[in-house]
Amino acid sequence: MASTKIPNQKAWLLVLPVVLLVAFNAVVPLMTVVNYSVQETFGENVFFFEGVKWFEQILHSKRFHESLQRQLLYTAIVLVLEVPLGVAIALAMPRRGPWVSVCLVLMAMPLLIPWNVVGAMWNIIALPDIGLLGRSLNAMGIEYNFTRQPFAAWATLIAMDVWHWTSLVVLLAYAGLSAIPDAYYQAAKIDGASRWAVFRFIQLPKMKRVLTIAILLRFMDSFMIYTEAIVVTGGGPGNSTTLLSIDLVKIALGQFDLGPAAAMSLIYFLIILLLSWVFYTVMTRDEAN
Amino acid sequence: MARIRLNQLRHSYRLQPQAESDWAVKRLDIEWANGSANALLGPSGCGKTTLLNIISGLLQPTEGAVYFDQRDVTPLPPDARNIAQVFQFPVVYDTMTVYDNLAFPLRNRHLAATAVDKRVREIAALLDLEPMLGQRAAGLTADGKQKISLGRGLVRDDVNVIMFDEPLTVIDPHLKWRLRGKLKELHQRVGTTMIYVTHDQTEALTFADQVIVMNDGMVVQAGTPVELFERPRHTFVGHFIGSPGMNLLPATFADGVVRFDGQPVELATTPKPPTAATRLEIGVRPEFVHFDRSGVAVRVARVRDSGRYRIVETERDAVTIRLLIAEGETLPSGSAFLRFDPKFTQLYADGWIAS
Q1: What is the pTM (predicted TM-score) of this model?
Q2: Domain that holds residue B181
Q3: Among the four residues A72, A217, A246, A275, which has the most C-beta atoms within 10 Å?
Q4: Where in B155-308 does DSSP place strands (E)?
Q5: Which of B91, B94, B108 lies nearest to residue A205, judging by beta carbons?
Q6: A 204-233 residues with CB below 8 A of B?
């Protein structure tokens, strides 16, 4: 049969619309960025080729280093808080009964709110003079003003991120937990396993795949955070909460330095790609061998 | 090792059971002798797994008590009962090696490492798991995993009872034979009381010395495989065990004579059916029905070949009577006469034996 088969390449035509779509929404913009990153722009659309000058400049820039450090710190704190907290909440949620759907809906709520609305909500609630949170803290004698104190600004951003995104970890972890058959818990009971041993040897291994996805998603999203942070702190006070994306927008649209901004975008993109790959490789290493 | 006794046990999954049908396990008393190989046989949903979980302590019975020897273990949690349970789907701790899986129950009980090692190696040798000790448990085949869950029960010294909850469900047919043989062999070597839950009559009858047949939360019959086959106490047992099941023919009883369609049918003993009985049936297995020169006149309707023997379906009016004949035996065509072996022919009144 195989020898009589006539090659038919017409199927490629069916893929063409997708190729066009991807080209317009991904490849073309990305190539534009690549194009900008190696040129100097002047008014009147005058371009000069500059080679890797912008890349060198960004990589040696103190400002970029500081933004990157802030970004790494921010993502690290977010992951360290959200993943264990999400797992803990998922473990505490009921496994069956009418409360399951109530809990799930409550958990999904923050995920349904648009990002800039989350930012606006937290901005208002944290206002030191009229916001519920800001006023309460000050009334309790804790001096709190996120527009003036870098620490308060950081705490506000992180609290907001935890509020907004822990649910995602909860939902994924809960899905992993629900997939564990009862027999595992029964066997563990018979084997005399402690609560910790049940977590360590049954629940955690069974949640591993979904947690890998949760960590990757939370890493990528928190590393690219822009909207919520710009609405709440605008990168301030000073530059204390100027994370990578905020810095990038300042360079690109504030200063209109398209070349350096494009180079920074590409470096930013490569960092995310590299770290995602590292995370993924480390977390799935066991399954490979 | 222990003698297991269930005393006046009842269980319902409802908080306030009212009707008889609310009870998943209806009131029963069962005793399993020390060191015996037992089976709990019944269709899905008959309460056998519930019963098993009550014995292992995963479930607290609504009423009644569970005794291991003289000790009432009803309030004890599963880990304090010193039992082993093998589940329908293999349970292994995926991230651990086979060795660590076997050592897990001992380590949870804080045994010294040398004692753990000695015990794990003994059990691994018993279950032919030695070559895989260093392997990750997740990579094993289904029968290997079932052996591990069995081993995790066996490593503990002096296990009271080992329970199997349909352990061969996910095992490939050709491995089923091997593992079933292994279980039987194991029982002979370690002599622990074993209870094997299944809905598969072949598994139950080949494994156990004593079989309890359950239906609808009740014990229908307890006995040896031979007793269940030759003298079912209830038509359910006659039907559930055997392939094809027992023939049931409408009967009448008067002046000490049992008749089927007017024809007297000879029984080994004169039955004493309760006078209030509304439904009388003659029960005789296809194995004990033969063609003869005279007797019950029937018409041969169908013949099915099952390999070693042929199943012949005969009819008399609307009643079908099946019988088995060997390959090569001559088969009368059209009308024929049947004889029932009196020794294995019973009368049932409302389902229960009346002899």
Answers
A1: 0.75
A2: 4-236
A3: A246
A4: 161-165, 193-198, 210-215, 218-223, 247-250, 252-254, 257-260, 263-265, 280-284, 289-292, 296-305
A5: B94
A6: 205-206
